[in-house]
Amino acid sequence: MTKSQPDDWERFRAFLLVLARVQTDARWKGKLDVSGVVQQTLLEAFQANTQLADANDHQKAAWLKRALANNLADEVRKLTTNRRDVGREQSLEAALDESMSRLELLLPAGQATPSQEAVRAERLLRLSQALSALPENQRQVIELHHLRGQSLVEVATALNLTKPAVAGLLHRGLKKLRELLTEDETDA
C-alpha cells in the first residue's frame, strides 16, 4: 500500500469548497468557517491514509463527501443549542449527494467502465477548481442556480440583484467556465 501525500488530497479542496458553500445556509454565513471545515476534512483524509490507500478518485470523493457532511453537521450543531439531530445530519448528506449530482450534470453524460469513471472523477475535480477560479459573483450565481437548483428569481432575491443581472452573470460565468475547462483540457 502506498501512502497518500498531502498534495494528493489538496487537489480535492476546490471540490469540497464548492459542496460546502452550496450547503451552507445563508444564516450561517460569517459564523461558519467553511474553509476550516474543508481543512478539517482534508486532515481527516490524510490521517486515514491506510484505509484509503487503494481507493480511486471516485471512492476518495465519496469518502470526503461523507466526512464533509459529518464535519458540517458538527459545526452547525456547535452553532445551535439544540441537541444532536440525526435527521438534520442525514438531510445534510442527502443535500450533499444532490449537489454532487447537480455538479456532475455540468459534465458530459456519465460512462460505465472503471477507467471512464476515473476520467469523470478527474473532470469533476477540474470543474470544481474552475468554479473556484471564477469571479465571486459569477460563481455564486452558478452555484445557487445549478447546484442548489434555485430559479433566477430566487437567486436574484438571495443576492439582492435583478433577474436580468443574474441572467447576465450566469451567462458570463458559464462562458468563462467553459473557457477555463477548455484551457485545462488543452494543457493536459
Description:
The protein is an all-alpha fold. It folds into two domains: 1-116, no CATH class; 134-188, Winged helix-like DNA-binding domain superfamily/Winged helix DNA-binding domain (Arc Repressor Mutant, subunit A, Orthogonal Bundle). Helix content is 76%, strand content 0%. The chain has ten helices and no strands. It has helices spanning 6-10, 13-23, 34-47, 49-52, 57-79, 86-105, 114-133, 136-147, 152-159, 163-187. Helix 2 (13-23) crosses helix 7 and helix 5 (57-79) packs across helix 6. The radius of gyration is 17 Å and the shape is globular. The two termini are 28 Å apart.
Quick summary:
This protein is mostly helical and 188 residues long. The protein folds into two domains: 1-116, no CATH class; 134-188, Winged helix-like DNA-binding domain superfamily/Winged helix DNA-binding domain (Arc Repressor Mutant, subunit A).
